[in-house]
UniProtKB/TrEMBL annotation:
<dbReference type="GO" id="GO:0005524">
    <property type="term" value="F:ATP binding"/>
</dbReference>
<feature type="transmembrane region" description="Helical">
    <location>
        <begin position="39"/>
        <end position="60"/>
    </location>
</feature>
<keyword id="KW-0547">Nucleotide-binding</keyword>
<keyword id="KW-0472">Membrane</keyword>
<keyword id="KW-0812">Transmembrane</keyword>
<feature type="transmembrane region" description="Helical">
    <location>
        <begin position="125"/>
        <end position="143"/>
    </location>
</feature>
<dbReference type="Pfam" id="PF07730">
    <property type="entry name" value="HisKA_3"/>
</dbReference>
<keyword id="KW-0902">Two-component regulatory system</keyword>
<dbReference type="GO" id="GO:0046983">
    <property type="term" value="F:protein dimerization activity"/>
</dbReference>
<dbReference type="GO" id="GO:0000155">
    <property type="term" value="F:phosphorelay sensor kinase activity"/>
</dbReference>
<keyword id="KW-0808">Transferase</keyword>
<protein>
    <recommendedName>
        <fullName>histidine kinase</fullName>
        <ecNumber>2.7.13.3</ecNumber>
    </recommendedName>
</protein>
<keyword id="KW-0597">Phosphoprotein</keyword>
<dbReference type="InterPro" id="IPR002195">
    <property type="entry name" value="Dihydroorotase_CS"/>
</dbReference>
<dbReference type="GO" id="GO:0016812">
    <property type="term" value="F:hydrolase activity, acting on carbon-nitrogen (but not peptide) bonds, in cyclic amides"/>
</dbReference>
<keyword id="KW-0067">ATP-binding</keyword>
<feature type="transmembrane region" description="Helical">
    <location>
        <begin position="66"/>
        <end position="84"/>
    </location>
</feature>
Length: 409
């Protein structure tokens, strides 16, 4: 199995098997499926082994017929065995290295096998195999070389071939490790980007729908609690339900439209949907008042940057939604103060009340999302009961002195 097939498969199998495919670690004795590139490299290695064997045969001194026949047969078999170098690299290197301690025509296959071990096995394996190949030069020099000069020349040539094969293999292995590391980083970065995008989408969906659905529940609960209300009140509540349902569908359509705007192969970035700012807070509070909430807004901040105003808007929106869920009928006070250089503070305070209808379901994900939003903006968020018995959501976000915004509250 090659890298292309693994990448096409994707997932955990690709990430687990990629080091083994690139480096060959731990694949001793397993069947090998060669790619086109692998076939080209294997043919080149076979030709290298055959070339070295042929040169050794040309330079070989006259030998007795039986020894020459053994040399030729062993050299031919060793060259053929090079095709097994991917499946049994260590075994092939050990066998050819030991045979090369006396047989000269096995040297070409021994060099190729050593190079394969250096590429496909870690140093704790390739190092000892290289030392063994160096030690096998001593018997060859002592038994096959004639004069002292021939021994020195044969020893120097043998050491050069062994060290060059080992060094070349180490360089190739290091490059493959670098490629694998870069791919791992790229995959990790892609997974992290996907995770962050999923969290952003989930946060956006929650911010968009939780407020609208809570408004629907509030008006529907009023109709259920007061079925004998005047016709005008019933019509007003039904109109509010219809309006909020329409707005919820519109917001949902906008979010889905943003997700569908650009595919993965398109170059244009996916734009953000239109976002509220600090200037939209009065409209939010007025909407809550029309739904029957007793909300008081104290807004003493102007000119906030759009991103800062959007974060404060979402925090206040979620806090008001929680107040409708858990303290129906209790007065709510919203205070937003701050300025450039001193930061922007938002506080939503309401007495802990008792709901008259069924409690809306919730798992605390909204407050968790608000805490994450505040931390991502470089600020902090606190929530919980205060000593005076009120429930308080308090956030403080940084507002750099040199930053100016376009929205004006």
């Amino acid at each position: 199995m090659d890298v292309t097939e693994l990448r096409a498969g994707g997932g955990q199998e690709y990430r687990w098997a990629l080091p083994s495919v690139l480096l060959g670690d731990g694949l001793e004795g397993r069947p090998v499926r060669r790619s086109t590139r692998d076939w080209i490299v294997d043919v080149a290695m076979f030709l290298v082994a055959c070339g070295i064997t042929f040169l050794s045969l040309v330079e070989m001194k006259p030998q007795p017929e039986p020894l020459l026949a053994v040399e030729q047969v062993a050299g031919a078999l060793a060259c053929v065995a090079v095709w097994l170098r991917r499946r049994w690299p260590v075994a092939l290197s050990l066998v050819t290295g030991l045979l090369s301690s006396y047989l000269e025509l096995v040297g070409g296959a021994s060099v190729v096998a050593l190079f394969t071990v250096a590429v496909h096995r870690p140093f704790k394996i390739s190092g000892p195999v290289t030392l063994l190949n160096l030690f096998t030069l001593a018997p060859y020099v002592m038994l096959r070389a004639g004069t002292d000069d021939e021994r020195m020349s044969a020893l120097a040539l043998g050491v050069t071939f062994v060290l060059l094969a080992f060094a070349w293999g180490i360089v190739v292995r290091a490059r493959r490790q670098l490629v694998w590391s870069l791919r791992q980083r790229a995959d990790s970065a892609a997974e992290e980007a996907k995770r962050l995008e999923r969290e952003r989408i989930a946060r956006e969906m929650h911010d968009v729908l939780a407020h609208r659905i809570s408004m629907l529940s509030l008006h529907a609960g009023a109709l259920e609690f007061r079925p004998d209300a005047p016709p005008d009140d019933i019509a007003r509540a039904a109109g509010a339900i219809r309006t909020n349902a329409h707005l919820a569908l519109q917001d949902l359509r906008e979010v889905i439209g943003v997700l569908r705007h650009a595919g993965p192969d398109e170059g244009d970035p996916v734009p953000d949907r239109p976002q509220p700012t600090l200037a939209d807070l009065p409209a939010l509070v007025e909407e809550c008042r029309q739904a029957g909430m007793d909300v008081h807004l104290h807004l003493r901040a102007g000119g906030a940057p759009e991103s800062l105003g959007r974060n404060v808007y979402r925090i206040v929106q979620e806090a008001l939604t929680n107040a409708r869920k858990h303290a129906d009928g209790a007065p709510v006070t919203v205070s937003v103060t701050g300025g450039p250089g001193e930061g922007l503070s938002a506080e939503v305070r309401n007495p802990l009340g008792v709901r008259h209808g069924a409690r809306l379901p919730g798992a605390g994900a909204g407050l968790i999302g608000l805490t994450e939003r505040a931390e991502l903006a470089g600020g902090r968020l606190e929530h919980g009961p205060a000593p005076d018995g009120d429930f308080v959501v308090r956030a403080r976000l940084p507002w750099p002195a040199q930053t100016s915004g376009e929205g004006d509250a």
